[in-house]
Design brief:
This protein is mostly helical and 440 residues long. The chain contains 17 helices and no strands. α6 packs antiparallel against α7, α11 runs parallel beside α14 and α14 runs antiparallel to α15.
């Protein structure tokens, strides 16, 4: 739409958002199928690890505090997000993928050896879990920023499909844990995770990886300047500001602290065995996959609708979890997983759709830092609420916090509609560097 056409309309007129473009399915590309397969094998190991670790820590310690400490390793690793994103933007995503996998493998092997030797203190487990999480954050930053250049014709759907692959593996992981835990124990499951790091490295050796970045040498930017450019790309778009605010609140409310509390509640309050608890997590992850597919596999991406509906389900879940009835608790887990899948898929696809490629790494790193900071508070806030109000009371307070995001979504609707009429991120000119006259 031209500026003259926009100014000719009365201030109260409402324009329908421009038709959303459709992208071809990335599954038609054989390179994408191989890339997704390697990613999936690695994610299966991660899902086994994520399911087995809190159950193992509960059996070793019986302590919610210890479970929360281990759960904090992942959000704590996201503190490095802006620096990892800056590295991806400056030198290309290739510098993060394989090194990240090697750091993950180092942490996983160290944890496995300590558990096998019987010297697995809580703090040693936390240190190893942090290495696994930090390496995973580097690997994730690398391939996320590399997807648009690897699959430029379907970059948004490619990102959404990879997210679908991830959620599929979150179902496979608990399934494997449930089926094999009685036979190989926690140590066998942890060693299974360590072997899966070889799969994405094999895909890389096959030549399927982000292309080498060809960029003219540039002077090193002042400390923090590149990160600020990443924030400007987010702050200038009301859609990205909206998803950031919602994601930060949900990371605090539904983050690592809530996940640890759910496992603790299954074992301590509902008296479920490790195998049954793993089966419940499996069912929850299956509905998370459904929520993802409802968003990621549509030819037309409608982020505001999926974000709103997903947030409604997440909020309703927390109140159902507070009910002292097992059917309500299990129903809440199902609905919450459905909403979580929709929200997370919307978030990752919006980054690729609305953030310019040249600042995608820095912007994604900052968003991960904000969400990770909130998620890092989750293992502190949730146990404190549980201690003060009991588990059911903690769920109610978290539900009220989540409810606040719905009012915010409603207030930002008109600004979102206006932003939908702007050119896509890829069509915008590069952001000028006011100090050097170059571009970022």
């Amino acid at each position: 739409m031209s500026g003259d056409e926009e100014s000719a309309r009365a201030p109260g007129d409402t324009l329908a958002p421009a038709a959303q473009p459709q992208e071809p399915s990335p599954l038609r590309d054989p390179r994408f199928r191989v890339f997704a397969a390697g990613n999936a094998l690695n994610n299966v190991g991660e899902a086994v690890y994520a399911t087995a670790l809190p159950l193992m820590v509960y059996d070793l310690t019986g302590s919610l505090a210890s479970m929360s400490l281990l759960a904090a390793a992942v959000p704590l690793s996201l503190v490095a997000g802006p620096w990892l994103g800056s590295a991806a933007d400056r030198w290309g995503p290739r510098v993060l993928v394989v090194p990240g996998l090697l750091v993950q493998a180092t942490g996983a092997v160290a944890m496995n050896l300590s558990v096998t030797a019987g010297h697995a203190s809580t703090w040693l487990l936390f240190g190893c879990a942090f290495l696994v999480a930090l390496g995973g954050s580097a690997y994730l930053t690398g391939w996320i920023t590399g997807v648009p250049s690897m699959f430029p014709d379907c970059k948004v759907r490619a990102r959404g499909t990879l997210n679908s692959v991830f959620f599929t593996t979150t179902v496979t992981g608990p399934l494997l844990t449930t089926a094999t835990l009685p036979w190989i124990g926690y140590t066998g499951l942890l060693w299974l995770n360590a072997t899966t790091f070889a799969a994405p490295i094999a895909v890389w050796l096959m030549g399927i990886h982000p292309p080498r970045q060809r960029r003219a040498p540039a002077a090193r930017p002042r400390t923090g300047h590149g990160v600020r450019e990443g924030w400007r790309a987010v702050a200038s778009d009301p859609r990205m500001l909206t998803i950031t605010a919602v994601h930060v609140v949900l990371s605090l409310v539904c983050g690592a602290g809530l996940q640890a509390l759910l496992v603790y509640d299954l074992r301590h309050h509902w008296h479920m065995s490790s195998a049954v608890s793993s089966a419940v997590i499996l069912a929850s992850n299956a509905f998370m996959l459904v929520g993802n597919l409802l968003v990621a596999q549509r030819a037309t991406f409608r982020p505001h609708l999926s974000l709103t509906l997903g947030t409604v389900l997440r909020t309703l879940t927390l109140f159902l979890l507070a009910a002292p009835l097992l059917p309500a608790f299990l129903g809440g887990l199902v609905l919450g997983a459905l909403g979580q899948g929709a929200v997370l898929s919307t978030m990752v696809m919006m980054r690729v759709k609305y953030i310019p490629q040249d600042v995608l790494g820095r912007s994604s790193g900052l968003l991960s830092l904000l969400a990770g900071g909130a998620a890092l508070l989750s293992p502190v806030v949730t146990p404190a609420l549980s201690h003060a109000l009991g588990v059911r009371g903690a769920f109610c307070v978290l539900g009220l916090l989540s409810l606040s995001t719905l009012g915010y979504l409603r207030r930002t609707w008109r600004a979102w509609e206006a932003a939908d009429r702007l050119p896509p991120a890829g069509a915008r000119p590069a952001v000028a560097d006011a100090t050097s006259g170059g571009t970022t």
